[in-house]
Amino acid sequence: MSSAGPPPPLPPWSRLEGQVVLVTGASSGIGRDFCLDLARAGCRVVAAARRADRLRSLCDEINASAASRAPRAVAVEVDVAAGGSALEAAVQKAWDAFGRIDALVNNAGIRGAVHSPLDWPEDEWDRIIKTNLTGSWLVAKHVCRRMRDAKLKGSVVNITSIAGLNRGHLPGSTGYASSKAAVHYATKIMALELGADRIRVNSIAPGLFKSEITAPLFQKRWLSTVASKIVPLKEHGATDPALTSLVRFLIHEASSYVTGNIFIVDSDLLRCRPGGDAQVLNPSCLSLLQLFEADVYSVLDGSTNKTHKSVTGKRRLPRNFLEMKTKETMMLLVPQTLMLSNVLLDTSTTSCEGSLLGTVPVRLGYS
């Protein structure tokens, strides 16, 4: 009986020994996962966030598992929306923790409330923009200045969202989506201008991953149905390794010729949405997609109503949507224009019969 042979070699970015990485938004969710993974890869981690107690717990966990007595993780309490001298002082403290910063993972951000674009309170809009856009730029500004002056070949990784990309639309997310789209363009311009200083800037735009913000969605039983019918890989992503491995790569010198890119990690979900490359879309997927968007809106908004009203006020979708009779469901959705961006449905030759999860094609026209 032949042996299986040696295991395949690990990629070079599996080890990042000695790299110092600042991670913002580190106290929970994806940011916390990044810190733990980078520590396992051999990095020294500066964990930054507002919640000091959670940061201390995270750093204690990392340092307890370290082989050496020297700390592998240091906590820095910071609110990226604070701006001014307070934010710069926090960045200086992060720099001083290990004497340098080789990479920044700009992960801090908030979703904010859910509103129609006609109902957004100005103070809520300002809070989202100040945190997600201004805060990420200021942290990068202060870190990259120090990288430049120390003549370090640095890497900045901005964690954004597919909400800020074409076809990544989610009703009620005007503020959040606008802030993330702006970070994408800031990424490209910063990459263009900081290249002369050997500082690389890239963005990662995740799809739906489990985090503190999305945790309520993952309690929904229908989410697996959405994944199996809409997501090409038939499942939702796990931070480790889908995102952590990419962050490692962008920190490692193997990516030394990679800058100004937006890496989409969503199982190609964007291209399966109306407005994507597909010219024929399964109406059941359209139904599920609208259900998904409506329920995301209600779950994230904290609604407890039995029906979900879209932010445009034009459609109500019952919570037991998938349990409705097929014909009634398709008559509700298909013969009318769905509220999906830049899409017109030609239903003149489309049958409303068949299984809700069937394969009746719908021709799409683009406005």
From TrEMBL:
Residues 19-212 form the Ketoreductase domain. Gene3D superfamilies: NAD(P)-binding Rossmann-like Domain. SUPFAM superfamilies: NAD(P)-binding Rossmann-fold domains. InterPro entries: KR_dom, NAD(P)-bd_dom_sf, SDR_fam. It comes from the Eukaryota. PANTHER family: BETA-KETOACYL-ACP REDUCTASE-LIKE PROTEIN-RELATED. Belongs to the short-chain dehydrogenases/reductases (SDR) family. This is Ketoreductase domain-containing protein. It comes from Zea mays (Maize).
